[in-house]
Design brief:
It is a single chain. With 421 residues, this protein is of the alpha/beta class. It has one domain (27-418): Metal-dependent hydrolases (TIM Barrel, Alpha-Beta Barrel), CATH 3.20.20.140. 38% of the residues lie in helices and 16% in strands. It has helices at residues 53-64, 69-86, 111-123, 155-166, 187-196, 211-221, 225-232, 249-258, 266-272, 279-285, 301-316, 330-340, 342-346, 372-378, 404-418, and strands at residues 16-17, 22-25, 27-32, 88-95, 126-133, 173-175, 177-179, 203-207, 239-243, 261-264, 288-291, 354-357, 385-390, 393-397, 400-401. The strands form 2 sheets. Strands 3, 4, 5, 6, 7, 8, 9, 10 and 11 form a 9-stranded parallel β-sheet that branches. Strand 14 and strand 15 form a beta hairpin. The longest helix is centred in the first third of the chain and has 18 residues, at 69-86.
Length: 421
């Protein structure tokens, strides 16, 4: 097994006082489905007495069926502006809406991917685009349902898409690979894709998000999802396991030993009723992790980090869970962990990416530098982000993106079309 990659983050201060403000490294959002920002708040009415992730998924499929090239671009651009204003400087876009609304393949099969690339470019965020391979509707290998047809590829078509997109890489754009989930990609297809792609390319996969998924995998494959993945593939720092909510002690230690990252998405996991990631045990095992906003019912790294801790407090009925022997500050432990995994999970070095927090904000009044990160994460909901730089270029000033009004107007127009019944 490969050992976890060593990061320089733990060896330098997280927050530096400058004449312009409190400087913090930019934060990577490790898991995004951009189109779902448009449906945030629209799945909060009961559709079934036993509403769950699986009933929410049907609502999401119906909404996804409406997304066009233009609306995908408009929604993603709005989302990325919101991310930048909140302090995210990199987004990993887990992208599976590949085809037209009627299921047709575009003349240019990369067209939906390029709409997202254009949205990232126009907003100024750093992107790792993760085209998703999606082949089957369950562990039993069933065909994709009608609502999943827009997501599907065979291996050859997927590799052609990857080749076309890799030609577009630049300083702010990297292409990685995503397998939707073990239930959606057969083992042979995973092996064929991995053999065809560069060894260091980031690989992301949804895994062990739901108890139902774990039970199905046990029934049909004789092992839990993470257990099965560990048995059949050599996990390494190139892998990011999205959610990994339901883990045994053996799985926790196996992930930690491999150096793989877990992308935890606390606000989405709470919204969907997924369950709580075993954070304390994972930290004690030395595992790498980061955060993602996933379905974007919240677009705030502060809220993801805060609720990562608060979920643990509610479950254990204790305080100050996310600490280590050499890091007694919860805020610093959380921020340090999120920053440390960014390079390996995104494939980007984040050069020139940083935030300036408003040192004059009331939450920092009289605060010692050693307490400033805790105050930022655990004191109120008013954003303290004043300026944001990506690749050395300023994209947010005085808390506002330079193109906020223009981009919001395009988003409103797109929403009027999406929400017409």
């Amino acid at each position: 097994m490969q050992q976890p990659a060593q990061s320089s983050i733990p060896n330098r201060p997280l927050l530096v006082q400058t004449t312009d403000g409190l400087r913090v490294p930019g934060i990577a959002n490790l898991h995004s489905h951009a189109f779902q920002r448009a449906m945030a708040g629209l799945a909060e009415r009961q559709t079934h007495p036993e509403d769950s992730f699986w009933t929410w998924r049907e609502t999401m499929y119906r909404f996804a069926a409406r997304m066009t090239l233009d609306s995908t671009y408009a929604v993603a651009r709005q989302l990325y502006v919101e991310m930048l204003e909140a302090g995210y400087t990199t987004v990993c876009e887990f992208h599976y809406l590949h085809y037209a609304t009627d299921g047709r393949t575009y003349d240019n099969p990369a067209q939906m991917s390029q709409a997202l690339i254009a949205a990232a470019r126009d907003s100024g965020i750093r992107m790792t685009l993760l085209p998703v391979l999606y082949m089957t509707g369950g562990f039993d290998g069933r065909a994709l349902s009608a609502r999943q047809q827009r997501f599907g590829h065979d291996v050859d078509a997927f590799l052609r898409l990857m080749q076309a997109l890799r030609a577009e890489e630049n300083d702010l754009l990297r292409i990685g690979c995503a397998f939707h989930s073990l239930r959606a990609v057969p083992e042979a297809a995973m092996r064929e894709v991995l053999a065809a792609l560069p060894e260091q390319m980031p690989v992301h996969i949804h895994i062990a998000e739901q108890i139902g998924e774990v039970q199905d995998c046990l029934s049909l494959r004789g092992a839990r999802p993470v257990e099965w993945l560990q048995q059949h593939f050599e996990l390494s720092p190139r892998w990011t396991l999205v959610h990994a909510t339901h883990l045994t002690a053996e799985e926790i230690h196996g992930i930690a030993r491999s150096g793989a990252t877990v992308a935890i998405c606390p606000t989405t996991e709470a919204n969907l009723g997924d369950g709580l990631f075993p954070l304390r045990d994972y930290l004690q095992a030395g595992g790498a992790w980061g955060i993602g906003s996933d379905s974007h019912i919240s677009v705030s790294p502060v809220e993801e980090l805060r609720w990562l801790e608060y979920g643990q407090r509610l479950a254990t009925r204790h305080r100050n869970i996310a600490v280590t022997p050499d890091s007694p500050s919860v805020g610093e432990t959380l921020l340090r962990g999120a920053l440390a995994s960014a390079r390996q999970a995104t494939g980007q070095d984040g050069s020139g990416d940083h935030l300036l927090l408003d040192a004059a904000a009331p939450i920092f009044a009289g605060v010692q530098p050693s307490d400033a990160v805790d105050r930022w994460i655990f004191s109120g909901n008013r954003s303290a982000v004043q300026s944001v730089y990506v690749g050395g270029r300023q994209v947010v000033a005085n808390g506002r993106h330079a193109r906020r009004d223009e981009i919001a107007a395009g988003y409103r127009a797109a929403m009027r079309g999406l929400l017409v019944d």
